[in-house]
Fold these 3 entries.
Entry 1:
Amino acid sequence: MQELINRLKELIADGTVVRAIGWKKGDMPYNPEPAYFEKPEDFDNFVYDGFCGANLSKMMIEAAKLEGKTAVCLKPCDTYSFNQLIREHRVNRENTYIIGVGCRGKLDIEKARKEGIKGIKSIAGVDIEGDGDVTFDTIYGEKKMAYKDLMLDRCHVCKGKDHVIFDEVIGESKDTADADRFEEVIKIEKMTPEERFAFFKSELSKCIRCNACRNVCPACSCRKCVFDNTKFDSQQKANVDSFEEKMFHIIRAFHVAGRCTDCGECSRVCPEGIPLHLFNRKFIKDIDTFYGEFQAGKDPEAQSPLTDFTFDDLEPKDAVGRGDK
Amino acid sequence: MYSIAKENLNSLYAAIAGSYDLFMPIKTAGQTNYGFWKEGAEGDIDTLKTIRSGKDAFFPQVEQLYTVNREIVPADVAAGDDAEKAADTPVRTKLKVTPGKLVDQDFVIFGMRACDVRAIEVMDNVFLTDPVDSYYKSRREHGIVVALACHEPEESCFCTVFGVDPADPSKAKADVATWMIDGKLYWKALTEKGEALTAKVADLFEQEDADAKVEEEKSYIEGIAKQLPNAELSLEGWGAGKTDEKFKSEVWDKVYKGCLGCGTCTFVCPTCQCYDIKDYTTKDGIQRYRCWDSCMYSDFTLMAGGQNRQTQLQRFRQRFMHKLVYYPTNNDGMFMCVGCGRCVEKCPQSLNIVKVIKAFAENK
Amino acid sequence: MCDCGNNKNQDILVPHVGIITDITQETPDVKTFRVNAPGGGKLFEHMPGQCAMVCVPGVGEGMFSITSSPTNKEYMEFSIKRCGLLTEYLHGLSVGDEITVRGPYGNHFPVETELKGKNLLFIAGGIGLAPLRSVINYCIDNRQDYGTIDILYGSRSADDLVKLKEIKEKWMNTEGVNVYLTIDREQEGWDGHVGFVPAYLKEIDFSTDKIGLICGPPIMIKFVLQGMKELGFTDDQVYTTLELRMKCGVGKCGRCNIGSKYVCKDGPVFRFDQIEEMPDEY
Amino acid sequence: MPMNEENKEFRPLIVAFCCNWCSYAGADLAGSSRLSYPADVKIIRVPCSGRVNPMFILRAFERGADGVIICGCHPGDCHYSTGNYYARRRMALLFSMLEYIGVENGRTRVEWCSAAEGAKFSKTMNEFCEKIKSLGENVRLGDLRCKN
């Protein structure tokens, strides 16, 4: 972490960049916040540890419009999102200095809460280097958890340890994948329609329409979202039953289909713990099956599958009824 | 004092649900939220904080206000309709307004924590002041609040800062106070409404002299509450009449930057009460409903000719100024925050009211 | 026909049904709607400067100032400029169509207290005459309670002057009432004053023994206020009425506040020294 | 759908998005050729099948439709050259998603139908209508408020 701070300070001092986007220490050991750093003293609060899960690439949409260059700390998976933003001309690459930061999986405090860990005073073992267990010092005594068990779901299907775009890389990364990316999707596909419907209904009935999933999504970069259009009466902030949430979530996922890099931010930020990535991943899986493997953000020149076609594409009627035969 | 063993709680829920609608923390799809208990539901009073607060009981996320039925009738020139215009547009719209139904049955809110009970007082100051909101009022009149002491407060809690006592729900404006001690729920009715509820389920309870036990539990909780990291948070500089000095502060510019403009904080907050009124057109009438709204949304103050809070900084400032300055100014210094800590846990970017208060203390 | 128009027990958010009994095309984009209860008579009483929520179900609801005077015992009027979704729809309605109205909301010009016995100066621009018209007619109808009345009214063009007929027939013919009209640009058939309101204000050089009531576009208000200060008026001599996005109208939905004041409940009428105390967020 | 005493048979509500250049004319031809198709089908004309936004379909269901069919020009015949190719991909993904969340297969359909195929239009609509009748009322995608 110190190396990263020193380098950022250096970049600002020598005028390469005017500001840096990174994470600021939180008031709890697990809640750092994305922040801008400009002056040397700002870096006193700079932090980069296991809880710095936020994908900072979306902040570059605004930051790249500012006067002067901005340095941004991107984890390997975040660089896919950044590439995708370049593809869509939403960020100015010229105005960005990308520091690829090392990552050995990011952590989810909810996982600890699920284990009954509360009253946290301090947390050890979440530094960016090292590979020991995580130790919680709490009011109710000391608790331990394996780093792996505390990881965000998305890190179990890690896209790999390589940054796909960067100006320089600081720190080591680890491929933390230990599960198949489409495992959950396949599991749902194998259910009966009734089970599937019941599953999504119970998950989506929790939705409070806070729009966090949309606002955090690096692919959701429309200047005006269709769901913010006051002239459209489905711009609903809440609904009588769960259908509209279904519509919101299907459309949200559809609008980013072919552009979603599967960064998992939507599921990370959902206050109700809805596995929103299941929608996005279903689209990704279908796109892979129907139109050939495609990873958004891997290549900033690649044509997105939904803005492309071939003459002998699959007919919609053949897209369904493949699972439960 | 009455008591009931924890393993018998389901029969207590069933007994209450036999006479009332029972609104309580229920676990669905891995998360605990308030909901109506029915046979088979998994009541969960161990989870300290439901994700959504208990405000749904009195101020639900969606509420039907009234239905308007439209009838298209031919223009009636004889009844004073302008003949020339009638030829132009031959039909007229007639409307019929049917107000939504008010709650008229008693219902029980079970397992509310002291902070959420205080939040009801905060909302009362909004909805029960002139002009009274009758939808809210009917719910308040019929709701019986059973409060539950917080056995193990968490690090995100800072209710003591606002004078809420997590150890003693009988200090809050609840109808029944309860404590969960060593696998037993202790029950103390506080008001007439609470007595009436107790009478209906009394045969499930044992009579027990447990005052000493409860006192012991209270001092245990108080001991924990003192150790919480935000227990000493200072509200100095906030409150009634501080509009000018806080509004103009440059600290806002430092604290808002990460804000996504989502509505998580407002929707999980037990005191946020801003709402929107919207129409939904169906085959049988236009339903006008109100739903929660968030001051963080870009369309919150949007008008045909622009708006008054155009930047996220302004919207962010509005939320915290409302909670810590504007509301106290209008309500004898009472803060519009109860320290439940839900925003501390749920903000996607880890921004929250505690960080704001601390940032102002540091940048004096 | 429902009787909800007369039901006093229902919630404040549930509206009355009102029937449009007359529509006047004032200018190319302003219409004045006369609204009655379906059974005849007024929907509710109000004070000058107060507002009401007018709603076309399924389209939208908006806050409009009641332009008729409380002294009018037969009907209420709303002058509405076409500028958005709701107003567009309202302009398409005909006499006999029903809308819903709820109110009255907000405070009012202090016609019974601070303004009583005083000389009054009304300054309006464009559709800004709407809220002031209620006060002007109230003062004219209770002529003996007020001193001199000066009305300075300006608009983009002669065609955009709202309620010209009433101005000419009623206001100009009342004793002690002086009307000054102006339009922004020269126009054929117009022999009155040409120029912006703030400039005309200084030309006329009003004496400061008056209380000013202003309403118009924000930019006009700003310059009029400047002009009045130059003439020697002080902030506590001038009233205006504000407008922000509103939903509930009763200070609960939480969007129309400026600082701790809610425009719908504590306003819309504010004295300028009160506005000065508010944070700069309007 | 209200089912009263005299009319016990389920009458579905079907929304058909028809391309202006082919199937809309096809429907016309079906009419002028005196070929019948069920009155339960409500046609909405769109400039191209590529104009059909997934939200149109979901909203139709939400407001009480029991089935939604999209008719466009045969691949290769699009008036705008390629609109229907894009539509084909979008609808394939959308239909798969609807299946995924547990909506019965067959409530949605895409059919390519030219202006000359009046008979095909009428046959398709009859078939689709029968299919929806067999599936019954749309419960899973509807909105409670539109259900009386």
Entry 2:
Amino acid sequence: MRASDLLGREVLDRDGIRLGVVTDLRCVLDGPLRGGLCAPRVEALLVSRHRTGSLLGYDRNEQQGPWLLRVLVRLLHRRLTVVPWTVVETSQAGPLARPLALRVAAADLPAAEGRHTPG
Amino acid sequence: MKQLLSVALGVLTAIGGFVDIGDLVTSGLVGSRFGLSLAWATLVGVVGICLFAEMSGRVAAVSGRATFDLVRERLGPRAGLANLAASFLITVLTFAAEVGGIALALELASSVNYLLWVPAAGLAVWLVIWRVRFSVLENVFGLLGLALVVFAVALWKLSPSWSDLAHQVLAPHNPSGEGLPTYFYYAIALFGAAMTPYEVFFFSSGGVEEHWTKRDIRTSRLNVFVGFPLGGLLSLSIAATAALVLLPRNIEVDALAQVGLPVAVAAGKLALAAAILGFVAATFGAALETGLSSGYAVAQYFGWQWGKLVRPREAARFHLVVLASTIAAVATILTTIDPIKVTEYSVVFSAVALPLTYLPILVISNDRDYMGDKVNGRVSNLLGSVFLVLVVVAAVAAIPLMLATKAGQ
Amino acid sequence: MIAGAAVVAVTGCVAPAPSPGAFEGKAVQTAKAALSSVDTALLASATAVRGRLPQPYLETTLSSAEDSLSSIQTAFDSVQPPATATSDRLRDTLDTLLSRGSDGLAQLRIASRREDHAVVAEATRSLQQVADGLDRFEQEHSG
Amino acid sequence: MTVAAGRVIDLHLHLLDRQVVDPDGRMVCKVDDLELELDERGRPYVTAILLGPRALGPRLGGRLGRWVAAIGERLAERDRPVSRIDFSLVTDIGSAIAVSRPRGRLDVIPLEDWVEEHVIARIPGSRHESE
């Protein structure tokens, strides 16, 4: 599997309601120790309604300027959802289902948390 | 003392490096048609290039990343590739214009047809890129480019009514006879000529190659804030001499020869010789910068080793791109297409591409992951936002205005 | 590709016969551009006579003025004039001026290269007349 | 940016498309894609950096992406898998990604070697630094 297999993938909740697309993979460096670093392990999917502009980073950082860009990008990403990997349906072997299905309802997912930059 | 010298050198080269064939032709052309009533566009462009060159220099010093690295990281591979294609084409087009400029300047000195000079000019540019060290190249061509100061001398010798000139600059109006679309078309051309994207590709890549650190930020700023505005003054002098000598005689610049004429009228043969030397040096220096920048952009997008500080063998693909660009630039001019027209198109297309380059720079220079505590201050961000809007407006308006005015006719 | 398309769009326009008004506009544009070429040559020549312009620069300036005037004339001649008597008259007047301009520029270039001062003076006088004619033409037909 | 165990990073924002550099400061490649594997509890983790046209192509998407990938396929030696740098070689994740092995010993950029050998090395002066 490649990171690009997950990025951009549509995400549906338990009831088949579209949540958005995967814009990023939030990882913790606590996977198996390989060489000098622990491998990054996917902890959660960041899901937004669009992909556009997500790489600028404004959807995740409250402070980053300038004001104009922050406002514009965050308007595009009003609802950024953090979907813990543990609620992603992964029962099928081989390639993941397309689109990704969740085991929970959209309403049960945390939203505000995603606004913070990691690290 | 040595440090002071290096700063002075940097400033001087920035002055010489600011002016290229696009500035020479556009300033002369606009001066001969609109007087100084479009000086504001040059001034705005100078503020813009200072602002973004400073940011890109700071990013290079703090994070070690040059501009096209940022483009791909922030726009992603797909939009980044589209950006690369556009930027690369425009840089090569500008490269072609500069090679044409060298040849035209040599024709003025020798009366040998410029087409015969083109292959020699292309070969010379490539050889210098291949074999000559960065600092040498920067200093030599920057300093020789300073010969263009004769335009300021010529302006002074023409002893114009300064208050009248100042009035034209401060109370811009559109002289009768030219439509408003044409007026704004040339405003965008001047803006594009001042803010050409290759200038920041080159500036930031140079900083990375010379291993700038946080301690070099001050030097970089000094070069930017003193060098570019003085370079802008040179552009304005060119426009002013054209406005004083050519405008009253109904001469509209469409050849490099006309740009130099006011110098001869005002100050004679020796001054004109200096002007020609300045033309050659400025266009040659800019040809080096654009040639290298075409390689920088591609190599930085794909992550290849690039640069002049390593042996060419170690940056094989980078040198291959530079070689291919040189051949393409020479071939373009050898089609006998008018180099002045190539120049005019290159500055307008540069204006179209401005947001592609400047948006990622503005974003990264605000990103604490890269910049730590060296992120933009309030003033930089306020101005940066204003300019972002401005470059978007210019980019959107450029092509429709070009079509509506038949490229300013 | 965009660049190529735009270049074609801007330069590659071969239009059918324009309206009389548009034709007059085109004629004024042509006169203006031609005046620029002729005046460039006159300025360069006058500067050279004052000993302020080196020979190679003068020659380059003159031949580039000649080239641009000839391409201006070619472009104008390729326009199909509307079938009105006024337009025909307009075309004749301007075309005569352009031809005289071309002749004058060629004469000036040749004489300048030979440094034949008498002929230079003669060519300058005739070009000055052409310039005055073009200027008048532009005044009469614009606005 | 130093890397401590337990640090949180966003793969797309902090890892993908970044420059990879070797211990001598030479540029190796970009992080064109990342290889993921599932651990014993079914959670994906990064095992390698993928690079080259066959890694970049699919990310470009569309016809262009297929075209880039197909070119990569043609250029690659037969049966050679997509070029990868094992994550065990990564020593730092910052504004660049540092790896512990020199570029020449990673054996991941055959095209650079080919261009060097067949084009650039044949031009006089290619072995020396500028003067």
Entry 3:
Amino acid sequence: MDMTFAPDPLALLVIGALGLIVVGAAGLAFGRHLFRLVLALGLAEAGANLLLVIAGYRWDAVAPILTGSAPAAMVDPVPQALVLTAIVIGVGVQALAVALLVRVKLAYGTLDLAELKALVERDIRAAAGIGEPDSAQAPATLPGPAGLIGERP
Amino acid sequence: MHRIATLLFALGLGVLLLGLAAQLPLGATPMAIGNEILARAPGEIGAANIVTSVVLAYRGIDTLGELAILFAAATAAGLVLGHAGSRSRNGEAGFILRTGSDLLFPLLLTVGFYIVLHGHLTPGGGFQGGVVLAAAFFASFLARPSHRPGHGVISLIEGLAGAAFIGIGLAALAGGGAFLQPLLDRGMLGELVSAGSLPLLYLAVGLKVGAELAGLLAQLAE
Amino acid sequence: MTPLDTLYLASAATLAAMLVLGDWRRAGVLATLMYGVQLALLFTMQRTGSTSFDLSALGFELSWRFDALSWFFAVVTLGTAFFASWYGAGEWLRAYTGRRRLFQSALAANVFAMLLLLGSGDLLTLFVGWEATSWAGFLLMALAGGLARDAALRYLVYAMAGAMALLGALVVLFQAGGSFSYEAARATLAAMAPGPLWALIILFGLGFGAKLALLPLHLWQAAAYSETPAPGSVFLGGVVGRMGLFALALVLVGLIGIPHLQALAVPFTFLTAQDVVAWVAALTVVLPTYTALKQNDARYLLAWHGIGQGGYMLLGLIVGSALGSAGGLLHVINYAATQATLLMVVFGVRHRVGHTDLNRLGGLVARMPLSFLALLLGIISLAGLPPMSGFVSKWMVYSSLIQDGRPFLFLAAIVGTLGTILSVYKLIHNLFLGQLRAEHEQLNEAPLSMLIPMLATATLAFVTGVAPGLVLGWVADAQAAIGLPVIDYTLGGIASPRASLDMLWVVGVMFAGFGVGALLFYGAGGKTHRVHQLDNYAGGHFLDAGMRYHYSDNFYAGLMHLIGGWYRGSFHWLEGAIGSGLSLVAQGAGGWYRAINPAFYLLAASVALIAWVAL
Amino acid sequence: MNALVLPVVLPLLTAFLLQPAGRLSAALARWAGPAVLLVCAGLLVQIALLTGGEPVTAAIGGFAPPVGIVFYADALALLMAIAVPVSALLLWPRAEAGEAGVRQSALMLLLVGSGTGMALSGDLFNLYVFYELLTVASFGLASATGTGRAYVATVRYVLVSGFGSLIALAGIALLYAQTGSLNLAQLADLAPERLANPLGLAAFACLLIGFGVKAELFPVNNWVPDLYACAGKPISALLAGVVSKLAVLVLLRLTVLVFDSPEAREMLMVLGLAGLVTGELAAWRARDLPRLLAYSSIGQLGLLFVALSLPGPAGLAAALAVALHHLLVKPALFMLAERWHGSLDKLAGAGRASPLAAGLFTLFALSLVGVPPLPGFWAKLLVLLELARGAGPFDLTALALVLAVTVVEAHYLFRLVGILYSPGEFRDRHSPRALAVAGLGGAVLVAAMLTLPAVSDALAGLASQAADTAAYRTLTLGGGL
């Protein structure tokens, strides 16, 4: 790897962005509380947005706003516009996720994943009319041999 | 155990990502379209803030999509929470909070509209301004939960603002151009009334975002 | 309109008529007549072939035509359908409580699908016909519901596995040769390297072997055939499994060719592909036949035999000599007549008694003498004894094995025949001989509508046994069609210098011998008189109707004890192991989708993905 | 062809105005949606007739690509675009009274607008925006049944989608950092030079995961079974039917135009196979029809990804055949599951209670398994032939797996058919609309079978047009307005 960390602020920013993504992803993966998962998602999203902004950055350039003075080199305006969009999208999704969590909490009284899993599984089973417990998700294999081979004692 | 697994995974992912990122051409992006936009935007659009040119002109339909996403989120949240039936919130906030919010309300409103209307000149714009507008309403709502802004008003504003955005786009289409083609005179670069229809679009965006967020927050707060 | 077009039209019309009129009281008669018409049409067609329509789809040409091989199998198909339908046209249909329209349509659909299969003019058409036959068979097997449904589902798994193996072989062959036509396939296969060719042979073998019920793909057949309503069972047992033989003859013999198979060595051994196929066939003869021996239900016993007899056919065919392949092919038609006869008798008994449990029957000869006669002729033929047709075809297969210098295969075939003789004795003994049960005292002979077809097929088996030349002409043409050496035949049998057989002589001598014996007996003053079953005693006690002296439970107990451990359940074990393994994997897959915290797997997956990219 | 933007914008406009309109008149709010969808479908058909299937572009805002966003409509894009409003019309949610109904209608309209946009757009980030809009709209629709389990299923869906979209965003960032462009045509131009490296592949992997969420791609598809089991069946039908195909269309454009490398194809194939095997095996063990269908949908889409990984117009034709077949069959099956939602074992007797539905189910099952001469067979045959053409170890493994899994599929589908036709107590009958939708699917299926030569020609035309990257680039970047 040809990485030159120390004097490079941009590299630090990249590490920061990736760090946010990693922390968010780890939170998503191992979180046990739904609300924390939503927060982790927001964290990771921030990282992705940061990455996007960095993608348009240039050395020795200014913000893409015309100020009347002689136009200097400006950074790429497109990623900034994209990030604006992406942030808003993120906000919308987060808000909706929180709204859903409110309903989940009202319905099951918990946001803990393990508890929810059991509750929902039971609920779905009851709704579908499948009475048996989990282990009876019997292997729906080929019909039993004895009767069908004709080998009746 | 659980924590170790978390740590290991995160470390592995991080190293892998870093390995990839090391190959990125940092700080020297190709700017295949960026340069062209930088060159063309001042003359073509007439907005001092080139990001605004991108947001509203070159990628205007993205912005429309974005508005629609906010709208969809608000609508979906309304659908999700609507089943609950509003629980009455009793108790108003204290005097200081009420007065503070009363004082803040016009201030926030002004700032919000300022940011919205100067979006084509300075950093800021419809989204940022819209959030400030929403904050204005939300602050007063927090202070006086009983006096929530009417749901009908919010939905009217968000509907009409969104429709206005599309309407401006369609007006260009009807005039024989393309959808969202800039209309009106470009004016002088850097003046408030410049950049053609962009300020109008940003106004619509600002109102829409404000209404959307206000509605969302109000629904969640219920 | 070519003769084949007319035949297809007639067959489709039969299906349409059954779809519309299947519920009609006389639908069975109508169907029988229409199968008769089809049979007549077939006989007016030139044996060497006829073409029919072709169409193109997605750039593939699909065409249908008949050659002598198709014609030969079509005769068996339509003949079996005709007699089976006749069997079910009268009293059986009146007593049938299932869905008649569905049943009649399913039978007609089977016939139509099989004719389409037999007429396939290229490999794609072959697959289309193959699938049509499989699914029509599934419909026929499943429509009785209950146990039949389960059996049919099991059949479906095997049939689909076969069909998919076949499809895999076809697409590989297509990409190697650029076309689905037989000519291109022949050229491609001739030039193919041993490795891919082996793969193709195995795939084709799996594909066609599933229908022929070759080992180890045979587990489905007995139950699926036995649980089908009577005429359907007769039809299935008589001919449907033979479609696998047709396809194997077409591909292994017609496209790859026996010489090529002989030249293809199994790596690291002295065996060739031909040997492998022959041994699979031989094992298919032996093992299922001894499984048949254990059956306690007459239908299952016969169905298990069907599997073994398919082995004989393949064995003869794969030997590849004029004599052997003729024997294999001849056995198709002989066996169809034989099996149809036997099944008709058994279902006739079932019609009267209500079950076919060999442990709860016996002595029925007194009540159903004509059925007994038909069954007797049938089992003689099945066991391969003169003067019935089964003897001719089996003799040809045996002779060819000896001529070809394959003593071990010959031995296997003999062992199989031994099992056959034992088990058909069990059949006739437990059904018709011995003590008549008290509850069967009032039974009647099978109804005429069922009796006539069974006697007719028995007669056919006898006539073709006495004069095999009647059908050996068809066989010879079929051999020519797939490039095999052609048998030299006479009306009475084979006229080859190394092995000749004249059944006219054999039967003549046999009956003359019987005549001499009778003359001696009566000439010496022998007398016969009828004895009632109960006019008997055992251990000094007179017997009465309430006493059971006819032991049929646990027949051949000693033999079973001797051989039982050898093969018992190993195939079931294999099937079960595959099923359980799949089930385990499926459980894992289900667990993945049911985990409520999905992101963990996402993270693992993304780590893997990025690692893949980076490395 | 500036009118191309109308089928995207009109539904959005209507959605914005629906709630205010609902205060004026309930009937207006109720009928405006379907009416606008009809108009959109009509517009798209008219565009298709005008262009005669030749590709056209529309530069949004009049800014010539690659600077501006461009809509690109070839025959395939138009076909998918037409499929969106038509499916939405057929699967329009049952009218709920009051505000909830209006909101649902608005979300449906947003979904249609974004779906059409996804079919037409030729700009990566624009695709992402439409994709997100579609996702958010489907969140709302999926949770609309209002049961607790539906909420939980939707939360799962939100989390996986959120994860996917952030990954997609990262992918876009990677792509942009490498090329500085978002226009697909320009990306196609730049790809051989800039993207033929691990970073390019990483970007593809990220986009694959991101857009794969909707397309039920393997690692990001475990929201599917619960959601389809808990959401309203029309919504499940919509998501499994047309929405997943839109995501596939995006991935198709990406693989054809930008990431046309063996490594990318390999990745697609491996993920597709994983989905195929896990989906079908899980379906084998499923105990209720909606989840069975959901799992089988995952499997079918796995097959689709395997087909998508095959190079050349022939591979594309195979992928399109599978996609269109699934688009037709799966919604119809979900509509049948509307009443048959309980345990599989309790469905005994359903065949007697509603013979038409059972017959249709059998037809679809036969076609899914791939029984000739039904269209499903030809689709599968095309895939298999292309796999055999590749003849690498990957291809042959895939070939074997596809064939093996078909056996499993046949087993569970016909086990169910057997249950349907066995005697039993089940008496529920389908709503006329569900039957009509399923019947329509069946009718189209049979019609496609009867007109197979014409259909296959059309398919080959679609595929060769979609595979023609040179035409895409010249038309888009040549500045056609």
